[in-house]
């Protein structure tokens, strides 16, 4: 995985927002509102450790905009969590929900710590204490967290249980978070939704290009919840994984990496290092491999002006949020590499989160096949609309995606008015 560029994710998102708002002549009042998050919550809270001491943790919840519905966005547990990153991710969530036309606003949150350095009991106490600290700032009709980097269905189960124990609203409190385990009210298909959705977008792109995915080569950066499921779905279509990269190693095999075995190994060990020692190579060589498709499913800012010129893919799919910096994107466009942007490519997670939320509120249950069909149709329709905007306005796909999202937000503001 690429070392951090030190570039601000929030600054990059704002730069793109500024360019698109000028291109489409976005209403100045709407632009002013969307330029800043509505609420910024920073929490310092103590937690009892296993050794009897107390440690202070710093948590964040950024609520960017709720014009279209309740705030919605993931919770990260990582040493890299900070205010700037969280603001950028929250803004992307506002655009993402607007783009795919689901009734949510945008938010993001997290705690600055590494969960793998703590016991399960400590992680549970950290999660519960953070949920209590958030208090009335979350709720099934106000702000609905979900899993993200470093968090799991178990974390969501603990958050939901804690919320149920501190709120007076019991009947619908199960819907306070999405991404829960199936046993605790989660939805079928939620864990695979982001990765599968990215490949459904790729299918649309390939159809337009007249390119067969059966036999296509691909590489993946990041093999967690998003990358592993994207690899599974792509391999089912006949794709051949020839390179994979994460924080621990880079593995290259032109003959193809067994996706099923790699997935099982990562579930057991939490990293790809050690899966195929003889095939491990220099981490940075990941960007030099000629492939049909590169899937970026790790972190933000991993592709930048320092390595973008080395990429030899026909298409890049952004399974992660903000993995390509603006200066890196300029180089990719110059080299005629297609990009399926993050707010479209990785929207499958929030789409299926919406279906989970609806099921919880209605005491309903949808089988996996129903969820997958809904996901495919929803993200497919969004892709086709972005493609139409790109063709009609002569824009690249990211600019077209921002354009469509902002057009929707602007239209709603104009119809509703800006109170008071």
Properties at a glance:
Rossmann fold, 420 residues, alpha/beta, five-stranded mixed β-sheet, seven-stranded mixed β-sheet, globular
Protein model, in words:
With 420 residues, this protein is of the alpha/beta class. Among the domains are: 38-174, Leucine Dehydrogenase, chain A, domain 1 (Rossmann fold, 3-Layer(aba) Sandwich), CATH 3.40.50; 193-345, Rossmann fold. 44% of the residues lie in helices and 16% in strands. Strand 11, helix 9 (326-334) and strand 12 form a beta-alpha-beta unit. 51% of the residues are buried. The model has no long low-confidence stretch (mean pLDDT 97).
Mean pLDDT: 97
User: Distance between the terminal alpha carbons, to the nearest Å?
Assistant: 48 Å
| Shape label | globular
Low-pLDDT ranges: none
The string of secondary-structure elements, in order, is: HHEEEHEHEHHEHEEHEEEHEHHHH
Helix content: 40-55%
Q: Judging by the overall fold, what is the CATH architecture of the domain at 193-345?
A: 3-Layer(aba) Sandwich
Biggest sheet statistics:
7 strands, mixed
- In the sheet with the most strands, the strands line up as 9-8-7-6-10-11-12
What share of residues are in beta strands?
15-25%
Give the number of DSSP strands: 12
CATH superfamily of the domain at 193-345: NAD(P)-binding Rossmann-like Domain
SS element count, helices: 13
Structural class: alpha/beta
Q: Measured on Cα atoms, how large is the radius of gyration?
A: 21 Å
């Amino acid at each position: 995985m690429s070392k951090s560029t030190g570039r601000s994710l929030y600054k990059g998102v704002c730069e793109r927002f500024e360019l698109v708002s000028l291109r489409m002549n976005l209403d100045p009042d709407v632009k002013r509102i969307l330029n800043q998050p509505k609420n910024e919550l920073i929490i310092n809270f103590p937690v009892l450790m296993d050794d009897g001491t107390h440690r202070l943790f710093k948590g964040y919840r950024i609520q960017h905009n709720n014009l279209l519905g309740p705030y919605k966005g993931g919770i990260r547990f990582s040493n890299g969590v900070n205010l700037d990153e969280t603001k950028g991710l929250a803004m992307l969530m506002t655009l993402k929900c607007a783009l795919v036309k689901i009734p949510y606003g945008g938010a993001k949150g997290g705690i600055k710590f590494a969960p793998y350095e703590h016991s399960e009991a400590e992680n549970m106490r950290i999660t519960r204490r953070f949920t209590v600290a958030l208090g009335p700032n979350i709720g099934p009709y106000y702000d609905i967290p979900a899993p993200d980097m470093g968090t799991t269905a178990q974390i969501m189960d603990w958050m939901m249980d804690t919320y149920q124990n501190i709120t007076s609203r019991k009947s619908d409190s199960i819907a306070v978070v999405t991404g829960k385990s199936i046993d605790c009210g989660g939805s079928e298909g939620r864990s695979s939704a982001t990765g599968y959705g990215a490949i459904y977008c790729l299918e649309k792109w390939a159809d337009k290009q007249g390119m067969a995915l059966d036999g296509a080569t691909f590489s993946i950066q990041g093999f967690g919840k998003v990358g592993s499921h994207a690899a599974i779905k792509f391999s089912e279509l006949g794709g051949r994984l020839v390179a994979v990269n994460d924080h621990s190693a880079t593995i290259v095999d032109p003959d193809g990496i067994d996706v099923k075995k790699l997935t099982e190994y990562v579930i057991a060990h939490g990293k790809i290092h050690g899966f195929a020692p003889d095939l491990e190579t220099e981490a940075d060589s990941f960007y030099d491999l000629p492939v049909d498709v590169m899937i970026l499913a790790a972190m933000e800012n991993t592709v930048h002006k320092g390595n973008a010129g080395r990429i030899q893919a026909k298409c890049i799919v952004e399974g992660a949020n903000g993995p390509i910096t603006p200066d890196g994107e300029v180089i990719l466009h110059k080299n005629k590499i297609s990009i399926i942007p993050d707010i479209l490519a990785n929207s499958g997670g929030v789409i299926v989160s919406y279906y989970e939320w609806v099921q919880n509120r209605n005491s309903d249950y949808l089988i996996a096949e129903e969820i997958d069909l809904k996901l495919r149709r929803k993200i497919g329709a969004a892709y086709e609309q972005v493609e139409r905007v790109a063709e009609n306005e002569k824009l690249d796909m990211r600019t077209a995606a921002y354009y469509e999202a902002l057009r929707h937000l602007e239209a709603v503001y104009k119809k509703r008015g800006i109170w008071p």
